[in-house]
Amino acid sequence: MAVATDGHRVRPAGELQRGTDPTAHPAPASVSLVRKIVHVDMDAFYAAVEQRDEPRLRGLPVAVGGGSERGVVMTASYEARRFGVHSAMPTVVARRACPELIVVPPRFAAYHEASASVHEVFRSFTDLVEPLALDEAFLDVSDPKRGPPSGTLVARAIKAEIRRTTGLTASAGVANGKFVAKVASGMRKPDGLTVITPDEVPGFVAALPIEAFFGVGPRTAERLHALGIRTGADLLRVEPLVLHEALGKLAGFLLQVARGVDERPVVPDRQRKSIGAERTFARDLEDRDVLEDELAAVCETVGRRLTRARLAARTVTVKVKYRDFRVITRSTTPATPVGGTRELRRFAEALLFTTPRPAGALRLVGVSVSGLFAADRRVVQPMLPFATTDDGAVDEAARAAPEHGCEPRGPP
Ligand SMILES: [Mg+2]
Asked: Does residue 369 fall inside a structural domain?
């Protein structure tokens, strides 16, 4: 059963050769269990798009929103924010605060287009992208598709590429968990990059006001204040039982986060069709032993991505390219889905060595898995049900940093 596929991501050949692809042959020392989560947030997104597209607006206080009596500001430019103008503020009030304010109606098509470009940049670094809004996403770059395996360097590269492709600036936060990454991205806006190392996380969280925590709305904050809790450090000083009594389920989550533990996965929202990797060899290969090693390395990469994304696959495909650039693929759909490197390798080996194919030296071997589904749905679900916050806020994540609270959560 031969299935032609061209679903493989093509990397520049040089990047794939032995020794130059950091993900292909990880030296034991470089294998890190610390996750690298990046939260990227575009700066004053709608207003920035308007200022980019209309040079006359640059350097001026601009508000995107409704100009009518009952209009509301959706996003304010940084020039307008200096006057205290912020999102969700009635336009009438905003004009009073800033008489020079230029109110422009939203152009959602332009924002969607810019957002698509930004997300394309994200996905060129990792498939683990969890969008939170048009202008905001979590990325798990622990095992990036390209670039060095450093959260800081990848975040810097993402910011630079966003700027180059869209002409817009973004701020990024880097940490080992989503919560801290999100707070960090709001710390040095605009065009900021804030990295909180794993060592720094506990101290960082301890110093945060309780209002900054996921799931803590005004009513929860009041209840916590009544218990004398104002910061992350205070959370750990209180008897856990007292906290559980006051907050229910949320208490367990807050205690974890206050201890610097936040293992919620980055959950990509769109269904991925396949995960694949391939290797182009420095010289063409025919020897089975050598090919077996190369295939194992490719399976290792694919298996790791599969496991990290907490997915299992129904179909395994092996692709080979010959010296004359002929490409042949072989697929199998085993009775039991494939969930890890070892099984993947077994099926890939069978496809490469026991399924008949033309003889000849190979210049490339690729492996991909498709028919993906959540390996463990309980894990794939976010651990904290945000919808159950006491004050019915749409997205408590917005409270993680004051900046975010002012941003629109997407088109109304
Ligand atoms: Mg933003």
From this structure: yes
- Confidence check: pLDDT of 271 > 60: no
326 is in which domain, residue-wise? 13-30+269-378
Determine the straight-line distance between the first and last CA of the chain, rounded to whole angstroms: 48
> Closest Cα partner for 7 from 410, 249, 370?
370
Q: Once rounded to an integer, what is the mean pLDDT over residues 334-358?
A: 91
Catalytic residue among 136, 211, 300, 407: 136
- Assess if residue 350 is contained within a domain: yes
How far away, in angstroms, is 223 Cα from ligand 1 center? 30
Q: Is residue 222 annotated as a catalytic residue, yes or no?
A: no
Number of structural domains (the chain) is 2
Q: Fill in the amino acid letter for 114.
A: A
Q: What's the whole-number mean pLDDT along residues 54-79?
A: 94
pLDDT tens digits, one per residue of 143-181: 999 888 899 999 999 999 999 999 999 999 999 999 999
How many angstroms does the Cα of residue 96 sit away from the middle of ligand 1? 24
- Residue 405 C-alpha to ligand 1 middle, in angstroms? 9
Query: How far is the centre of ligand 1, averaged over its atoms, from the C-alpha of 214 (Å)?
Result: 17
CA of 187 to the centre of ligand 1 (A): 12
| β-pair partners for 90 | 72
pLDDT, position 238? 92
CA distance 9 to 115: 22
Residue 83 lies in a domain: yes
Sequence-ordered list of residues with C-beta below 8 angstroms from that of 85, at least 6 positions apart, any chain: 61, 63, 73, 76, 94, 97, 98, 101
Protein residues with C-beta less than 5 angstroms from the ion ligand 1: 41-42, 45, 135, 407
pLDDT higher than threshold 50 for residue 60: yes
Query: In sequence order, what DSSP letters do the residues of 318-363 get, joined into one string?
Result: EEEEETT--EEEEEE--SS-B-SHHHHHHHHHIIIIIS----S-EE
Q: What separation in Å is there between the alpha carbon of 163 and the centre of ligand 1? A: 14
Average pLDDT over the chain, rounded to whole?
Answer: 83
Among 14-23, 70-79, 305-314, 319-328, the least confident range: 14-23
Cβ atoms of residues 130 and 267 within 8 Å: yes
